[in-house]
Specification:
Largest sheet: none
Oligomer: single chain
Helix content: 55-70%
Number of strands: 0
Length: about 190
């Protein structure tokens, strides 16, 4: 049985306790590393982090949130347990879902691998209404089955449409964060 990973094992900063003090740009270096290792776009991954930055990600606050709502998502990328377990099994990752709370770099790594897995399951041809990255972001938010339905032309519901609007809005901010960290962004897919 794999052992749990130590918190913050690679030195990524712990998100601040103060609400509103978290900025995904602080994690540009782990995003670039995680995206490269998984073979996904750093811009896609960073934009997903901006979309998921709506709540504080300090480990203490996430523990309290999980106590109140046991099925809550955890980590910088707000990953649910079922998604984490799929990624953990598919990639033989060490660690536990709860480790996402205290290890931001691990959370980014797992999110990148999840996007990679979603990309593998996305059909090569899809409706032209969405870019591939938009479909992957929708898949991250709503699950792979829904993502494939959207790719076939099934319209997303109001929550998914809201997620997509925020994804499009955050795209420039994510690109600027990566550029400030010295990463040149390729063209969106």
């Amino acid at each position: 049985m794999p052992r749990s990973r130590p918190a913050g094992h690679r030195g990524a900063p712990t998100p601040p306790l103060r609400p509103g003090g978290y900025d995904p740009a602080d994690y540009a270096a782990p995003v670039v590393r995680g995206a490269a290792a998984a073979g996904v776009s750093p811009l896609l991954l960073m934009t997903v982090l901006y979309n998921e930055a709506y709540k504080p990600h300090h480990p203490l606050l996430e523990r309290l949130w999980q106590w109140w709502k046991p099925g809550a998502s955890l980590g910088l990328a707000n990953m649910h347990r079922a998604a984490f377990e799929r990624v953990r099994r598919a990639h033989a990752l060490p660690g536990r879902w709860q480790d996402l709370r205290a290890d931001p770099e691990f959370a980014v790594e797992v999110a990148a691998l999840h996007l990679k897995d979603l990309d593998r399951s996305l059909p090569a041809h899809h409706v032209r209404r969405y870019t591939r990255d938009e479909l992957l972001a929708l898949g991250y938010n709503t699950g792979g089955r829904n993502m494939r339905a959207f790719a076939r032309g099934v319209p997303p519901g109001p929550l998914a449409r809201s997620y997509l609007r925020r994804f499009r809005t955050h795209r420039d901010r994510a690109a600027a964060a990566l550029a400030a960290a010295g990463h040149r962004n390729p063209a969106p897919r």
